[in-house]
Design goal:
mainly alpha; Neurolysin, domain 3; 18 helices; 4% strand
Amino acid sequence: MEYNWGRKEFLHQLENLELLISREKDIRRKLYLEKVLDTSNKLYYETFVDFPKPKVTAKQRLTNILDSHFSYGRYYSIVQSFFNNISEHIDTIDEISNKLERIDPDGNFDFMNTGATITFENTLNLVKEFYKRFDSELYCYFLEVYGDREYSLRYSKLPKEETKTDGTTLFIDGVSKNFITVYETNPLSTYICTIHEYGHAIANLINPEVSYADREDLFMEVAAIFPELIALYENNFDFETIQVLYQMYTNLVTYVNSAEYLCLHNPILNAWADNKHIMSNSFFKQLEEFYDMDEECFEEALSTTIEDEGVYVISYAVAMELLHIYRTNKKKAIELFKRFLKYPAKEDILAFIIENIPINKHIGEEANIVLNNFNRELKKRRY
C-alpha cells in the first residue's frame, strides 16, 4: 500500500469542512468550525506553499523573547527547574559526547544502521502491536486513525531545509481527520517517530478542541513523547540494545541543550535592560564577562524559543515523570496519562499537572538511568 497523502487529500477535507459549516445551525458550533477552517487554511499554506521566510533581526527576536517571558513566565520556571535538576549530570553527558566523537567524528554511527531493514508496512504492524499492548482504550482510537492510513499517512525523505523534526501531524476537527508525515531515517527511529505521531493523532481524536483552544498550553507533546518513551523502555520487538539506549541518550541531550539555551534568556534580557535596550558593545561585553556567553552561544539562545523547543523540554519533563511512575505501577501511569489527554480544553492543564504529576522531581534520577545504561553498553562493546 502506498502511504503518500498530499495536497489533494488535504483540500478535499477542507471542502468537506466548508460544507459542514454551511449546514451548521448552532451559532456557537459554527463559529468554532470557522476557527478550525481558518487555522487549517493556514496549515495548508505552511505545508504546500513555499513562501520565503522573512528575516527577523536580533532586536526583534529579543523583543519576542521579552514578550514570551511575560506570557509564559511560569513555564520558564519549569524549564529552569528541569535544567537545575539535571545539571549534576552535565559532566557525564560531556564524557559520553566526547567518547562518541572519538568513535565517529562525522556522527554516522554504524551501530544505528545495523540489523534488518524494515518495510513501512512492517513498521506499521509493530506500531499497531505496540498500541494494542499499551492500552485497550487508546488502541481503539489508534485503530480509527490506522484504518484511514491510505489517505492520511505518508513516509517521505526529510526536506533539506528541515533539521528539527522527524515527523508532523496536522489535524482538522469537524471532519476529524489527521494527516501524518513520518520522515525516513533508520528502522528504530522510523518506528519511534511513527509511534510519536500516532500519539498526537490519538490525542486529537480524544480531545479535538485542545488543538484550537485559546488556553496557555505548552504540554501538547506529552501525548506523543510518553508512548515513545514506553516503546523504548519496553523494547518489545528486540531492536538492538545499543540503538535503543542511543536513542534515549540523544533525546535527553537534545532537551538538556534546549533547556540550557532557554535558561540564558533571563540574563540576556537583564543585560539588554541594563544597556537601555541597545545591543551595544557593552551589552555583549556584559554577556561575555558575567555569563561566559560568546556570539555563537548568544545566537543559539535567540534561536531557541519557549513556544517551540520549550514545548518539547516541558513535555519531556512530564513524560519522564510518568515513565518513573510506570516503572513501578504501569496502571497508575497510564491512567494519569489518559486523564491528561481528556482534560477539558478550556481549563488550566498546568493546574492538573501540578496536582497529579510531580514534574521534575525525579528527572535527575531518570537522567542518571539513561546515561549509566548507555555508558555501560558502550564500555561493554569496548568503545
